[in-house]
């Protein structure tokens, strides 16, 4: 499909996916914020019940297998084995077809049973509306893994943007229209989620067309492995990764069931369980943004580091891993600190029609902001362990973290004086446990031991100073404007000014403390000019 000479660099591939994710997340914010304003906390709960079930089926079907395809394709690409690449794809696509079809049928015909299992019967229609997406996303995952394995991130980026635009355009419209017809919050949530389904269908059709247009029909001399051998290789790599990722999805599903169930066990809160859980998800919407920008780094890490290891270029693989650590530290730590400091006021700004829900969700952000840092580091360290052939370790660490979360939620949420406020605490402790174990195992199995103090000390210091500046500026501006503006307007201006102050302080500190290296910046567009401008070494 593409020549090795055209293969994108690690940072180039990451930049393409990061740009796409930035666009997708902007679209997602435009989608989630009006959606939250339209349906409120209860409607978000119905949406999330369906989405959690969808995530389990999706993770079981696609979490590890696309990465296995990406890794095997990358190895074959580095060796110039064109026939091997083609056979990997033709073997994998049928596996994904069967898995996707089974998942879609289960969601559609088992919607009532699944909604009842989640302690939220009104999740029935959202579950059914999302069921076809499982089949489409399975095929999408196979095609994305194949193109990414050849170092081509552009098809994935384009399909993600197309999917997000459909979700925005159709999902919001249907949610608003169904509510206008008086059909109820559960039907509105189903309408919103139908936009996701349509987006996956159109993205799948786009990638099919792309692969047909760019099909390499040239002759090749290599003899590919048999389909049985390839299937065993795909499963050997993919199953441990799938088990690792599925563990967290399954635990999250069970955790949602436990939280809703424990809230309903408290007599005074039984009728408001869906509302309380929805308020918690208001905060989760914000902390899920930064990990989405880390995801492109981890997705690029596996195929490019795997290709380097295939060429026995261990130094090159180590450089990729080191750059990924520095970039994630520079992005994730200030993002988490910023959300912890200004997350509550930001919710008040973003949900003007649901001020009561936003106010109730604000205390969650102090814990969830810190959890955001650990989520980003979990994604990266899982990818590093998987790249170095230690796919089984994230299974263990994720299970430990998940059990921590479930047990803590059972006791904390069930305590009437704590109730839903226990959910963000358990979330933070869950990811802290996972990251602590992952960092230990990365250190243990790395040929060149990472220097964690060197990697994290400066970003932590810069982020702490940034957080203090943002908090102080927000408070000063809010108090200065509160007498002459509405409470909402004063807070909104204070949030924006606080963010700008934090960004300015952090930017100066990144340069002054020389947190980034030249090799981290050189590969991005105009990177050489930035290296000279910032005097990076």
Structural class: mainly alpha
The N- to C-terminal Cα distance equals 37 Å
Helix and strand sequence: HHHHHHHHHHHHHHHHHHH
Instruction: Provide mean pLDDT, rounded.
Output: 83
The number of strands is 0
Shape descriptor: globular
Whole-number total of structural domains: 2
Low-confidence stretches: 1-7
Q: How helical, in percent, are the residues? A: over 70%
Describe the sheet with the most strands.
none
Individual helix count: 19
Global Rg: 23 Å
The percent range for strand residues is under 5%
List the main descriptive attributes of the protein structure presented here:
mainly alpha; 19 helices; globular
Describe what this molecule looks like in 3D.
The protein has 537 residues and is mostly helical. It folds into 2 domains: 4-217 and 225-450, no CATH class; 451-537, no CATH class. The protein is 82% helix and 0% strand. The protein has 19 helices and no strands. It has helices at residues 10-62, 65-78, 82-109, 111-117, 124-149, 154-180, 185-213, 227-265, 273-287, 289-310, 314-350, 355-361, 364-387, 392-413, 422-445, 452-481, 487-512, 518-521, 527-534. Helix 1 (10-62) crosses helix 6, helix 2 runs antiparallel to helix 3 and helix 4 crosses helix 5 (124-149). The longest helix is centred in the first third of the chain and has 53 residues, at 10-62. It is globular and about 75 Å long.
